[in-house]
Structure formats: structure tokens, C-alpha cells
Amino acid sequence: MGRAPCCDKANVKKGPWSPEEDAKLKAYIEEHGTGGNWIALPHKIGLKRCGKSCRLRWLNYLRPNIKHGGFTEEEDQIICSLYISIGSRWSIIAAQLPGRTDNDIKNYWNTRLKKKLLGKRRQSAQSPSLHLNQAAGEGANGVNHEAPSQTLSASALERLQLHMQFQGLYHPFSFHNHPARQPKCHPPGDPTATTLIQQVSPPKPDAGHLQEIDCSSVGFHSPSAMETSSSNLDAGLEADLQDLLYCKNSSSFVGHEEHQLANLDYYKDLYGERETANWCPCNGLEDQSSSMGSWDSASALHSDAMIQEFALRYNL
DNA sequence: AAACAACACAACCGCCTTACA
DNA sequence: ATGTAAGGCGGTTGTGTTGTT
Known about the structure:
Blueprint: H1 19-32, H2 41-44, H3 51-62, H4 73-86, H5 90-95, H6 102-118, H7 154-167, H8 196-200, H9 235-247, H10 257-272, E1 279-280, E2 294-295, H11 297-300, H12 304-314
Antiparallel strand pairs: 1-2
Helix pairs in contact: 10-12
The structure holds a DNA duplex (21 and 21 nucleotides).
């Protein structure tokens, strides 16, 4: 049975807010607060709006100290590194950027930052698998070449690619080029560690050696990033993935073929772990009472390639 | 100048979680 | 323990603006 709608859809106004509506909402909340009930609020002040809509309007635009646009380079870097670490958890990312809203960051990422970082992908005509997560799974000629189960989620792919760019030395946001970003990834036992993970979550007492690292920085810990098992990847998709990851920026990527293949295996292993990896609610960026979690690194870290990567990155 | 495409952003939708009776 | 309502979140869509042909 479906969930009942939060409001009477027939009697609520939709679309852009008028200045009058904004003024009403703002004035009421500034004087009385939200009253702990967004659903009832619009009725109290005579707004023909859904309570959810009021909440969104207040949180994203009307409440004090909201910043719009003008993202700084520093903010770009924070957003990028957090996106790679934790995926599209915009509320968590927004919490690290005072004055920014999750919606704002999400829009900024989707419309600008992502393009800035990833660049334009190859023209679709060159490879059907570049339509990786299109809803219909269509190839360049409009024919469905691959079943949905054989596609890689766009989100996962983006993070994959960004991760590789981070790993490479050429990218302006590289950890190597920006040691200031490295404190987010502390070696085991570092008493000075003040990572994001520790700000919001107590360390796991029995965490293993590798788990003491802020594993979220490795990425691919969110369910969204694990949407598709690459065990289903066919040879063509694998080739295309490699091509996408390496060839496009081959001039600046430091690895060679062996390394590339090892890394590909690492990601394949990681994706393949989806069904068996433990979802650990106390191993991510969230407090233990929250619903969010991360994939238990212990389950994903068995890959030699990954361990090598850890060793390489963290200088272990 | 008009038509079209691309972009940017605001808002909505629906699912999941949480609080509470 | 269970059901329900509300809050919160991420994905998606709609619409206005800007750029290009």
C-alpha cells in the first residue's frame, strides 16, 4: 500500500514562490519558529503550499546566512573530495560548507563542477557503452545493446573516474598536489587525526589496521556507488571503461598497462563485493544512530591491488 | 531577428528514517 | 511491537536565461 500524500495536492500551489509568499513564511518563522510541524505551518499562515515545500523554501533560500553561487576554489575542492569519499550525500557535504545548502551543492555539482572535473566524455557514437546508465540502456544507434544489469551506474563511473584522477599526479585537486587535503586520510594511530569521520563519529574500538584510516576517502562506500556489479561487465564494456579511465588522459596518467589492469581488477573486485561486503553503520561519516553507513573496508580491502594503492597513497 | 540548444537553478517527487502514540 | 505521520534526503523535472547558429 502506498504512502498517503503529505498534503492535498489539489489545493496546494506549485511552482515558483512569489515575494509575498516568501515574506509571509519568513516573517512567521522568524517570529514563531517552525513550531515543529511543517505540515501545519502553511495553514497557520494562510499559504496554499505543501508543508514540505515551505520547509524547502525556508532551508534553501529564506533562512539567514545562506550563500548562493560564487563557489570558491576551496569549496570546489571540498565538494570534490567529499563526493569521491562519500558519494552524493549532499547533506553531509553541505554540513562541511557553512552557508551552503545541499540543494545548492547538488545543483552546482551536477551543472558545473562535475563537468569541470570530468570534462566532456567522448561522443556517444564512438561507443555504445558510453550510454552506461541511460534509462533505456540504448546504444549510439538507439538500439538497446545491453541489459540494465550490464551497465555501470553513472554515479559510480564518475566517482571511479574522479578517483583515478585524484590518484593521478596531474589533476589540480590531486592529493599529491594538495597535501592540505591529506589530513583527511590519516595513517593508523595518528594521534593528530582530526578527520571528518572523527568529528561526527567516534572511532570504532576494534577497528582493524586499515580501518583506522579514514577509509571513506577511498570512495565507493555508498550503496549508490555499488549499484551494479561489474562481474557482469562484458569485454567490450571493460575495454571501454579502461579506455575511459586511462586513454583519455593517458598523457598525464602515471601508470602503465600493468598498473592499469591491476587497478581495473581492484575496482572490479570492489564492485563485485557488493553482495557480500558488510554495510557498516559505524564506519562512515555519520553517527551511529543515523541510518547511513559505509561498506566495511575489511571486506573490500582484500585485493592486493587495493592494498598496494593504500600503501602508495598513504605512504605506509 | 528568430529558432534552437545548452545551461543553471528552483522546485517537486517519492522513498527511507525517525519519533511517537 | 506495531502503525502512522512527519522530517529528511537524493534524484529528477520544469522553467527561465543565455549562447549559438
